[in-house]
Amino acid sequence: MPNNQRAxxxxxxxxxxxxxxxxxxxxxxxxxxxxxxGTLVVDVSATRVVxxxxxxxxxxxxxxxxxxxxxxxxxxxxxxxxxLLSLTKLDKLFELEFAGVETSPDDVLxxxxxxxxxxxxxxxxxxxxxxAEMVGAAQRVLELCVEHARVRVQGGxxxxxxxxxxxxxxxxxxxxxxxRWLTWEAAWKLESGRPDADAAVATAKAYSAxxxxxxxxxxxxxxxxxxxxxxxxxxLFHKRILAASLDAGDAGLHLETxxxxxxxx
Length: 265
Description:
Structural class: mainly alpha
Order of helices and strands: EEHEEHEHHEEHHHH
Number of domains: 2
Low-confidence stretches: none
Shape: flat
Number of strands: 7
Distance between the termini: 67 Å
Helix content: 55-70%
């Protein structure tokens, strides 16, 4: 192995019990390489379970390596690990301030008062993308809840055998599928250039924002205490849905677009 590279195998269960030893070993290996160079290759091909504390350890290692101008690369990551890591990435938000800048009429982009026409295409795509993100997160919440209902035993039988839990899971399925089809329809209309594409995107974003938040909140009720704990990824999906529901316009803003489309505003 090159001098500027080290390798470390992650445990089969990277969780609250194993993260400490794993983190110490990783930091030690990074310290063996000079700052400004070096890559730590973490083999996760045998890792089957990563809870939120283990996920946080991977994120921390990447940040620690970046502070030393080094890198951490994962080898053999499965789809679940890649998805969870993508959810932990904070969107890059920037604030731009102008101080003492003079402008003239020649600096105006587009016609005066017509700035929204320039922003609208990007806004539509952003709303559609966020709708798809919320649907994907809600789908995973549904899968987690159904699996939990099958294996969580209470009163001598799995909780999925109780009608209240069955109805709750059915509600999750209804909201996920409704949001999915509205998002698909909006994507099709936008790609096809249909005249009602704006209303379709607004409908998908408004409904997904409300429905997917219902899924996340009901998911916590089904999961119980484990859904609020650090070891479970449910809170990650809930946070991403909440953030996406506000980005590119909240439900209220998009409902105004729908109202105008049907002649009510």
